[in-house]
């Protein structure tokens, strides 16, 4: 429910819907690369592709919206900004309050070793660890669900030592991706997918077999 999200944030970040409004947090799993992105790119080859992942997600969420012709469906994407340059929604908070993934933050560590350093939090999924992404929100403004019970996210990094290790790796060594394997995972990105996301955005087209013209 939108109210779960609004309850943990300052008013400046609230979503402009009533508390009982139904919302879905959309995640992409490791298989998205082969099952959605590559087919989308090969189908759209002759059109203008600026950001393959964002356009692929947009395409699929628009198709979900089409399945509900009699409903108002609002879509927010993880990359969208408000005119104030604030994100339209805080993806990791949304994932946590919906029960999709646990958002580990500095406040989850009792004996904080970082002093004055800025430490960013990170979501971990009980099945995919850090090998997933939060892509968007689907909101149904006309559907009110006062009866919906809030599920707690699975606290899969439960020891103090592991939480410190997770936040250390994510904040200071995120490039090597070790934080993603902080727990045992059921599925992770393929080598091809790892290479894609490790490549600077401007050079990714080549990896998908896209020409300069498509850019």
UniProtKB/TrEMBL annotation:
Superkingdom as given in the UniProt entry: Eukaryota
PANTHER family reported in the protein's UniProt record: CYANOCOBALAMIN REDUCTASE _ ALKYLCOBALAMIN DEALKYLASE, METHYLMALONIC ACIDURIA AND HOMOCYSTINURIA TYPE C PROTEIN
Family label: Belongs to the MMACHC family.
Keyword NADP tagged: yes
Primary residence: cytoplasm
Molecular function in Gene Ontology: cobalamin binding; cyanocobalamin reductase (cyanide-eliminating) (NADP+) activity; demethylase activity; FAD binding
Protein name, as recorded: Cyanocobalamin reductase / alkylcobalamin dealkylase
